[in-house]
Write a structure and sequence with these properties.
Length: 294
């Protein structure tokens, strides 16, 4: 099996590669020499491609796509031409123009884009009856202080990577849509810089949602945090229940990275994406509207 890692724009493909290396020959393409050097030091056996076209020409059985958000639609279009399964690391897009460009693509059933938390053992397989739910809340704790010093400035730029509202907000929106479905709309969103004044976006935020069933929900985004954790609280008539996702002593497994790659490898073997594109599209619409609103 051969897998192409097309882009190393965030930390995620480095983590993905550690799992993929146990199953496949790796091909890597990255525009930034320093990022590429870091990768090849860890994976000296990986074949290095000089361009996306060269990476795709090696005949991969699947592609993990991780380029800056503005480049995703064009890069994904080229991957789609090959017909091979593709995992697009989150979030696939961050702005209205990017989403419109994505909507023009013929996305097939073996394209997956998701927050890895959907596949975290503490969450995966959780089922709820919306009729039993009054309201839901997702809390995202993930420090964004690294951006305040200028690291990966495109991610922190609202018009490029969406900033904290999109890049961290996706984790909460993804979990809630996984539980309650894609019939959801944005009610409102707000963000603020409470601690990291050097940011281009925000370090705290809130997203308010409403499902067609009448359930209302909120996503709290806390980008100033000593520890990384994620939670979902379900409020019902008889009380509340909570799901907590933490890194523990095996973050690759506990945060869902391993489960996500397992899902991708199932796609390589012929299975459809476990997350229908219509559901992903609903999540992206909420995030784009939240960015516009905030």
């Amino acid at each position: 099996m051969r897998v192409a890692l097309a882009g190393l724009a965030t930390s995620h493909p480095y983590t993905d590669a550690r799992t993929l290396a146990r199953h496949a020959e790796l091909v890597v393409w990255e525009q930034d020499p320093e990022r590429l050097r870091r990768f090849t030091e860890e994976h000296p056996g990986a074949k290095v491609a000089g361009s996306l076209g060269e990476a795709l020409a090696t005949g991969p059985d699947g592609v993990v796509l991780t380029v800056p958000n503005p480049q995703v639609p064009e890069a994904l279009a080229r991957v789609l031409e090959t017909g091979v399964p593709c995992f697009v690391n989150k979030p696939a897009v961050a702005t209205r123009a990017q989403l419109d460009a994505l909507d023009r693509l013929a996305i097939h059933e073996r394209v997956l884009s998701t927050s890895v938390l959907r596949f975290a053992p503490a969450f995966a397989g959780t089922l709820v009856d919306p009729g039993d739910v009054l309201a839901v809340r997702a809390t995202v704790r993930h420090d964004v202080g690294l951006w305040a010093g200028g690291y990966n400035a495109w991610q922190d730029t609202p018009g490029e990577g969406g900033g904290t509202m999109v890049t961290m907000g996706i984790h909460g929106v993804e979990l809630l849509v996984a539980l309650l479905g894609p019939d959801v709309r944005l009610v409102g969103a707000a963000g603020a810089r409470r601690h990291y004044q050097g940011l281009r976006s925000e370090d705290t935020g809130v997203i308010a949602l409403r499902w067609g069933s009448g359930v209302v929900g909120t996503v709290e985004i806390l980008g100033v945090s000593r520890d990384e954790s994620y939670g979902v609280t379900l409020h019902g008539r008889d009380g509340s229940s909570a799901i907590v996702i933490e890194s523990g002593d095996d973050p690759v497994r506990q945060l869902g990275y391993e489960g996500t790659i397992d899902a991708f490898l199932s796609m390589v073997r012929g299975a459809p994406s476990p997350v229908p594109w219509g559901e992903t599209r609903a999540i992206l619409e909420v995030l784009v509207r939240a960015r516009e609103s905030a």
